[in-house]
Amino acid sequence: MPTAPHPQNTDELYQALQENQRRPYGRTRTVTAEELVDAAEQFGEPLPLFRTLLELQEAYTYGSEPRKSPVVFARLLTLFDEQPDAFDEPLRHLLFWRFKWVANALRALPEIPLTSLRQWLTEMRDRYEKAGLGLQPYYGEAYQLAAHVGEDTTLAYELWAARTRTRLSDCEACEICRRARHHLAAGDDERALRAWEPVLAGQESCQEEPARSLSYALLPLLRTGRADRARELHLAGYRGCRRNPSMSGEVGRHLEFCALTGNEARGLELLAENRSLFDEVDSPLDQLDFLTGVEVLLQRVELLGHGELPAAGYAGRTWTAAGLRAEVRGRADDLAARFDARNGTTAHTDRRRARLDRAPLLDTLELTLRTRSLDDVTPAAPVAPTAARPAAAAPESLTELILRARTSDEQGHPDARACWARLRTLVAARDYTHPDDPAVGPVVRLRADLLAEEANRAHEEDRFTDAVALKEEAAALYDDAGAPGEAALTRAGVLLANAEILAEGADGPEAKATALTDAHASMVRMHDGTPGLTPHQEARLLRLRATALALRLQTTRSQDHVAPVFAEADLLRAFAARHDIVGQISGAHMLRATTHAISGDLPAAVTEADALLDRLKAHGPAWHLPRTLGLRGRIGLLLQDPQGAYTDLAEGLRLAADWPADAVGTTRLHADLAEACMHLGRPEEALRHLTRAAELDLRHGSRTDAYCTYSNAAQLSLDLGRVEDCIALLDSLLAEPDVAAGELDDRLVAQLRLTRARALHTGEDLKAATAEFVALAAESAGWDDDPGSHAMIAAETAVLLAESSEFGRAREAADQALAAHAEDPRYEHLSNSLRELARLQAQQQGADGLPDALAVLADAGRVADEARAAGYEAHGRSLDTALAYEHGRVNAYAGAYEDALAALDKALTLLGEPGQDDDRAGEWAECVRLAGVVEGLYLERPAPALTRLDAAIVRLTALGHTEESESLTSLAARLRDEE
Question: How far is CA 501 from CA 291, 474, 492, 888, in A?
């Protein structure tokens, strides 16, 4: 089926050809190229057909379809031989360049006899000699064939590398990679890395480089002790080759790198992202390279005991790591054997075996901000308590396990959750037999316990509707089991969850407060009307009552609601003390400390927290220490004592390591430590705590919270200049199943994508960044409830389109931003973007772009007028002075120097002269500098320009702004020299 309208003339054909060349390599581009060849044949002219065949061969080559590339080239060569004079020099150059492509394609096909490969090289040499072309490219191909076959490459290398490069030589980056790989094959890592440095440093590049070189350099960097550099290049290099069929071998080497650095979980993640390569790569040589890398990874996963983990493989079935490894091994062994049979050597089998036999180079290397082990990605039932603290001996009988679970639950012991998880698995088994023991009670009681525990977890995760349904079912089962106390406790939990549900649908805090007040009153009545409660049950009911009032205070922050919380907390404390229920005594103190903090009495909160810490150290329970230290740390942050807060939080985190993370608030400790670190000027440490907090949330099912925290971590990493870390983190998150399936809040996903687009832009991947921004702008246009966000996204999109010289589309995006801004103003963001759009247009188009640039500045002027009328104060530069300065720059770029100077004088007037402690000194100095350039250099009036500059230098120097005056001093010296 055609993918585009059929061109009716050569102009339409060439336009369609240009459009196709902008597409990424893949099936769509290839199919379109095939259709364009068919269309070109109807015109009966050699040039249109020649150009479309060139495009088709390129699509086959970079789409990893080597079998088809030589066939297309044969047609090109025939056309050239029939009418050589019809082709100009650029087309002749392309034709002779493509001889190398055919040599590469033939090497990649084991069914092509070795004699045919040598015959093709002879054909290439003869053609080059006949055309008077240098033979360095031919010798380069001869060397590559020798290396491929596994022959002694010494002579072939010298014949190629010692020759002078020609116009048809491969680019510098590709030849550097080839030389470095030669040294690598000789076992000289250091020499290889020295050769690679211009490419690794970004000084040389092409379509395939530096991505190819980066993949080969990873292991040599590790072997020579440059692990940090290897990490950096893995992140940058993988992004350059992922999901690219023509670079599947490079993807395989990144998978191998993950396997050899303790990053098997990341390797499986990257494998899933590149699943399409199993079916899209048609090149046997690329397949062999890719599959060997895949097998290195899967072999390591299986060796570590995780062979049953799911793995992404060939389409049509689900795979485990072990099953996929067996399949991959068979296919790769066959490919290697076919190449060796063709070549008459064992080179490919030997190279493959060397990769598979390679031992891990590092036990662990933290590759990304989201470090996970295979245990973290194993889908399994909840595990026993963390091994950091020796767990209680596993019960020898089912009866003991049930009793321990209930006792632990009464005490609030962290081990309770692991006990219930184990019981849930046992009870679900078909052969489950309930103990016939009065101490355990009937099976219906146990089923109620399990439902109640599941309901409590749902409540903790804010899944209140699920919690209500589960608690109501559990309460009914408790009734059936003759456990009225547990039934009452469970129904009290229903009241609290229902209050949260009512609050979610209510308008304002008053409605939520009313719902919580009613829930508390119902709990009191239930408490009074339920006889026979055990002390532990009564204490837990008192705790629920106090919790309802504490939540009400947290909602309203009303002083009228403070005393009732203290009254309930004191009631709980007194009751628990009488019955020596240490966990509830601690809980009452914690409620009091929190209430003091919420009510604004921070000193009293500190005193209460200190008293609780003393009590916990003396009487326990020990698992309450981390949360209490966390509370004191948060109070320290409120008291603007980040160092004290850090000390408490770090100690809390240290103690939390002894308990399951979800039972002692480890996630919150990490999040609060991140805040403390930011206050202390330690953003790198803050970043580590943010990512730890997010991953813990993710593991424990709080996925929205996890993505929000990860979003903050991504933005922080971008602010720190860790661009590749930011992109890698966001790529990992956006590949999560619930994100890919559209189950996560669309605005949160959009924020993740927006940060990624900004990171791509910062990382100078303008094409990818622009594509993402354009997509986000289209999606956000439908956000009727949030036009302000659309205004900001569309404005940024306009700037990126302008950077790509697409000024028509940039203007359309700017108009969208202005329309959305009219509904929900974003004065500063929009003004900044419009000024930048105008600058880019004037800079790139000069005088031709001036009218459109001035029209954009006029829009920015209206935005500034609106901001002034609304009383808006910019957080950065004044919108009016920034606009005047931009008028100066835009006119200067367009050669309208008098207008530029007038605009800059206006900007200086608006700014006013800086003072000693004025942070506008830099902006003022830049304005003076540009005015001096326009006046002294472009308008050739050095005398007034020097008067302006000298006065500014004196002014700035007197105020102590010596750094700001340096550029002015340099310009003044230049003007005097030119005089």
Answer: 52, 19, 14, 58
CB 218 within 8 A of CB 234: yes
Consecutive H or E run containing 728:
helix 723-734
Q: Among 209-223, 383-397, 888-902, 934-948, name the one with the lowest average pLDDT.
A: 383-397
| Bridge partner residues of 693 (DSSP) | none
**Site of tokens 């046997």:** 284
Which pTM does this prediction carry?
0.86
Is the CB of residue 114 less than 8 Å from the CB of residue 149?
A: yes
Query: How far apart are alpha carbons 972 and 928 in whole angstroms?
Result: 11
The whole-number pLDDT of residue 663 equals 87
Using CB atoms within 10 Å of the CB of residue 28, give its burial: 0 to 12 exposed, 13 to 18 middle, 19+ buried: middle
Torsion angle of the four alpha carbons 370, 374, 379, 383, in this order, in degrees rounded to the nearest 10: -100
289-347 pLDDT per residue, tens: 999 999 999 999 999 999 999 999 999 999 999 999 999 999 999 999 999 999 999 99
Environment class of residue 77 by beta-carbon count within 10 Å: exposed (0-12), middle (13-18) or buried (19+)?
middle
Token pair for residue 732?
């990992």
What whole-number distance in Å separates Cα of residue 468 and Cα of residue 496?
Answer: 9
Q: What is the pLDDT of residue 1?
A: 42
Please provide the size of the chain in residues: 979
Q: Rounded CA gap, 251 and 274, in Å? A: 8
Beta-carbon contacts of residue 356 (< 8 Å; ≥ 6 apart): 292, 295, 296, 299
Within 8 A by CB and 6+ apart from 336, the residues are: 288, 348, 349, 352
In a 10 Å sphere around its CB, with 0-12 CB exposed, 13-18 middle and 19+ buried, how is residue 801 labelled? buried
**What pLDDT score does 505 carry?**
66
Q: What is the 3-state secondary structure (H, E, C) of 316-332?
A: CCCEEHHHHHHHHHHHH
965's CB contacts (< 8 A; 6+ apart) are 925, 952, 953, 956, 957
Q: Using omega within 30 degrees of 0 as the cis cutoff, is the peptide bond preceding 621 cis?
A: yes
If DSSP states are collapsed to H, E and C, what string results for 59-81?
Answer: HHHHCCCCCCHHHHHHHHHHHHH
The mean-pLDDT minimum among 145-149, 391-395, 437-441, 869-873 falls in 391-395
